[in-house]
Amino acid sequence: MAAVPFSVSFASKVAIVTGGARGIGLACARALCNRGASVVLADADLETASKAAMEMNTQQNKVLAFACDVSSTAEVEKLVQFTVEKLGGVDIVISNAGIVRAAPFLEMTEKDFDDVINVNLKGVFLTGQHAARQMVKQGRGGAIINMGSVNGVTAIPTIAGYNASKGGVHNLTRSMALALAPHGIRVNAIAPGSIMTDVLRKVADNPEEMNKVLSRVPLGRVGEPEEVGEIAAFLASDSASYIVGETIYADGGRLALN
Ligand code: NDP
Question: Residues in domain Ketoreductase (predicted)?
Fold first, then answer.
């Protein structure tokens, strides 16, 4: 069951999608690109990002890949510079790059905790700040969408750093929204539940574990990346012109269950 695409044009808009090489990021990039946006797929995995970019390029819109670790200020700065040089500006940012490190709380290493916070939370801060400086300079508004998680409001004990990082993303989204709304830049977040990407595909190999996941989803199925991509396109579009500082949950009813 895929989300039904809605009609909106992003012709002449330029988007940056972090973690855009695969999974949810790639689906967000496709949702924008299919509607006419030019997109930079910014990812730690340049090879996969480049292959995806080549497939998505059309005569109407450009799709470029760029190697970027979102936890590095210097690399995020270069990402924004590259986007401006190659595509003429920045209108839409999907801050989606994220990692998970699992371990029981008492055994979680400081490095794993730091890595998760640095990519998932600091990465959203750096990407949002550097892109927003450019967007403010341009003076034509825009939209920033940060990828949160249902784990930003509920907690799975083995991923304490991840839960904390996503809770941080939801609140950082509000702070960014307040700072940038006066410039016509709308900042919102999406909090997905269980979406079928590489992480969940590994769980799907174990039917018992998969049944546990499904038992927590009232809709009785996991989500597809495209179902998050459509929400990103909506939030980036003028159809969401009065939505600011919100987090939209896409979880098949999981949070309603708690
Ligand atoms: P994937 O692991 O499938 O894709 C994430 C992409 O981000 C990968 O290409 C990865 O590269 C890249 N990446 C990792 N670290 C960095 C970094 N430091 N800088 C730039 N790129 C990086 O993830 P999903 O598509 O499943 O998830 C995307 C987002 O959605 C994440 O923020 C995740 O937390 C969130 N989310 C996902 C859910 C799900 O069920 N899938 C549920 C809730 C939230 P590489 O492979 O080289 O590491």
Answer: 13-193
